[in-house]
Structures are given as structure tokens and as C-alpha cells.
Amino acid sequence: MNKEFEELTGILKDLANLQGSELLTRANSNMASTLLKDIEDCFENESDAKGNKWAKRKDKKDHKLLFNTGDLGNHWDTKADNKGFFVFNNRGKSKSGFSYGLSHQFGSKNGIPARPFLPIKGETIENAELNDEIKQKILKELENTIKRALKISK
Length: 154
Description:
single chain, 154 residues, mainly alpha, two-stranded antiparallel ribbon, 5 helices, 49% helix
């Protein structure tokens, strides 16, 4: 995966030298959108990126899982430029500083079950990396961006 990604990004950078840095920005924006859609699908379907349903709630609240205030599920954003991209949520902490996004992603020692919404693998955020499925989706998006750029440059 890494070798293929490096080859494709090399091709993209060569094309960007011909077409300008807006091509890199567009490619990064498209890849960010791919990742964002996977995250949004997890919240919508109440499942992880592989379709495994989240643990049921113990209380009787009627809102969707992880949508108590909507800060975690509804406030994802992307940022992309010609150097890279980010998908982020600036509202993933409580007023007291509790990082409930990470607690739900990985579970917690005080009884919060893991309800993963990020398409990553790893037991902690420190050793996390994108899962193979989202890597393939991002690679496909990168390939499509290159194909579109080649058609434009002809």
C-alpha cells in the first residue's frame, strides 16, 4: 500500500508541476472527503467502518448513539491544501476537558464500550493507522484524480 501510494503521489506531484498546485489541493480535498464520508456513515449506521454494530445503550434515552449533544457526530470538517489534508472534530471534548470521542472510539476503563467511528486500526490513538479498506478507497480516489488530470492535460 505504501509503495503504491508513494508512486501515485509522485505522479500527482509531477502533474501538479505541469498544472499548478491546485491539482494537489483538489486531490487532497477529494481524499479528505472520502475519509469524512466513512466517518459520517459510521454515525449514521451506528456501526464501525466494517459494519459491526455498536454496543447498545444501557439507558433509555431516545436519541441516536453518540448524539447526546450532537457535538461528536455532527461537527466533522475537512481542511486540505497542496501539502495534505485533515479530517477533524474540534468539539470532541466536554466542558471539563473529557475527551469523549477517544473514549467512544477505544472504550474506557470506567465502562464506556468501544463504539469506533474512525476507520482506523490499533488499540490506542498512539498506534492507530488507517484501516486497509479506507486506504484502498483513498488510493482509488487518488487514481481517479490522476486519471482526470491526465484527461485535462491532453
